[in-house]
Every structure is written in structure tokens, then in C-alpha cells.
Amino acid sequence: MEMHQLRYFVAVAEELHFGRAAQRENVSQPPLSLQIKKLEEELGVLLLERTKRRVRLTEAGAAFLPEARSILATAKNAKHMALQAHRGEIGQVRLGFVHSASLGYLPQLVEPFRKAFPLVKICLEEMTVTEQVEALHDGSIDIGIVRPLVEMPEWESFQVVREGFTLVVPVTHAMAGQDSVDLRSLRDENFVFTPEHRSPAFYSQLMRIFAKSGFVPKVVVEANTVYTTIGLVGTGAGLGILPESVSCVQIPSVRFVPIRNTSETAELQMVYQPDRLTNSARKMVDFAKALAKHQA
Predict the structure, then answer these.
(1) Rounded to a whole number, what is the distance in angstroms from the first to the last CA of the chain?
(2) Which stretches make up the HTH lysR-type domain (predicted)?
(3) What is this structure's pTM?
(4) With contact defined as beta carbons under 8 Å apart, do 160 and 106 qualify?
(5) Strand (E) positions, the chain?
(6) Mutual orientation of helices 105-116 and 279-295 as an angle, nearest 10°?
(7) All domains of the chain, ordered by start, with CATH?
């Protein structure tokens, strides 16, 4: 049983005329009649009753018609889904991200992508940079959103966010009401930092910022997440320095103060192994590149 045989049968069943059915299927009448005859022989039943004056469905033909239509519709849908999968419009993307990306960049990426490709399932997993590197190696995520990495030959990456830094202070701190702050005035303050092993590049960048200001910060508490850092700052444990996108977080116990006199910026990169991308993941990479270009 072949698809074109089913199409020819459905056409005759709906037209009740071999000539019109052949015209509809863009074939001559003899091949159409021959294929329906082969279909009947394969099924072992007569589907159509033919006379010189009319064509009508037999009981077997009437029972077979809805099934034939269903098979043709399923085949058409399967072809459509295969094409969508080939174009990356259906499937799954496993996306790792550092915590700070969830406050600004991630919503800007995920929501418009989801609207553009509603049949692509997005699986989000918050991970440290180190965890994302391991996950990209073992294939448990397709794409990572990380702080800048040491370049790896088999990987590709591009910048998706560049932003300044902000100082996080308790609402009771003397600097809470200032428009901006110079880091050199913070020599005697205590600080809350993300541990070096969780984000080596970010930690090194903060140390470089302080080195340019002429001192080494006194880190008294280490916090694994942005929210934990902000919460600890709010209790008076110390001050924090974070990417400025975190200032969208509304917490009454802290204030965010821009840092002046530094050219350092916090960057986020999208990283992936191009030869291991699924079609849907490649579609997200292309979408992110277009978004980054638009926002540049």
C-alpha cells in the first residue's frame, strides 16, 4: 500500500468520477485506475463499484475512506514535523546559565525566542561557570551563558552582555545616598565575594579592579549566589560588587551605587561546541547573535 494509491482512491471517492479525480491528481486516467485496482487487489476487497453511468463506494470502500484520509493526514503531518525539526523549529534546547544572567539577559533571550519558536522546549539549568564547562564537555547542556572563559579550540563563543559594576551597600551605610562611589574610598571596608572556584574569571576581574585602586579587598564572607550576596550585604556583613543589572532587584535593606573611575566591565558570553549543536540549539545561537547585534 503506497501513499499515491491512497491519494488516488480518496480523490475518486470524493469526486465519484475517475476523470475528475485524475485531473485533480494531475495524472492521466489509466494510471490512476490501475493504481486503485492494485490497491483493491492488495486489500482483497472491492472499494469502488464502477458502471458506465456512475462510480460509488462499496461498503468496504466507505469503511476504508476515513482510514485512508487519516493515514494521508498523518503522513503529511509527519513530513511537516520532520521539516520543522530540520529547520530547528521543533525540538529542545538545554541552556546552562550563571545566576546573574537570570536577572537581566535571560528573560530578554528566552521570552522572545519562545514566542518565535513555540514548539521548541527550553530546559534551563542554573550552574556555575565550572559546572557549565563540565556539562558542555559531557553533553548534558547544549549552550552555556558564562563569564568569560579561557578560549578552547573546539568551542565558539560570543559576547551577549557588557555592563558596568555597581556597589551594593546596606541602606544604613553612609554611601547609600551617594550618586556614585570611588573604590579608593573603600579601603577599610569589609566585602562579600563570590568564591573564586565558582566563577574564576569574575573573581579575577574584581581583584584586578581593586588592584588598580591600590589595595586588596578584605573579604570576610563568601556567598555562592547573587541573592545570597545581596542578603548578606543587607545584614551588614560587608559590601558587595556585582554587575549593574542586579540593581533591578528590589530589596529594602540595600542600595546600589554606581562605581566611577573604572573602565572594567562585566561580560556574559554564550559558549557552545558548534559540531554538537542540535538544530534547535543552533537556532537559539543564531537568535542570540541577532539579539546581541541589535542591542550593540
Answers:
(1) 57
(2) 1-58
(3) 0.71
(4) no
(5) 48-50, 55-57, 91-97, 120-126, 143-146, 156-163, 165-170, 181-182, 190-193, 218-222, 240-243, 254-260, 266-272
(6) 120
(7) 3-86 (1.10.10.10), 91-160+270-295 (3.40.190.10), 165-264 (3.40.190.10)
* Dihedral of alpha carbons 29, 33, 34, 38, sign: positive
Spatial separation of the C-alpha atoms in residues 166 and 170, rounded to whole Å: 13
The SS3 call for residue 32 is: helix
Q: Are strands 240-243 and 218-222 parallel, antiparallel or unpaired?
A: unpaired
Contact in structure between 292 and 160 (CB atoms under 8 Å): yes
Q: 183 to each of 166, 190, 205, how far by Cα in Å?
A: 11, 13, 14
Mean pLDDT for the stretch of residues 186-205: 88
Q: Collect all residues with Cβ–Cβ distance below 8 Å to 200 and sequence separation of at least 6.
A: 129, 130
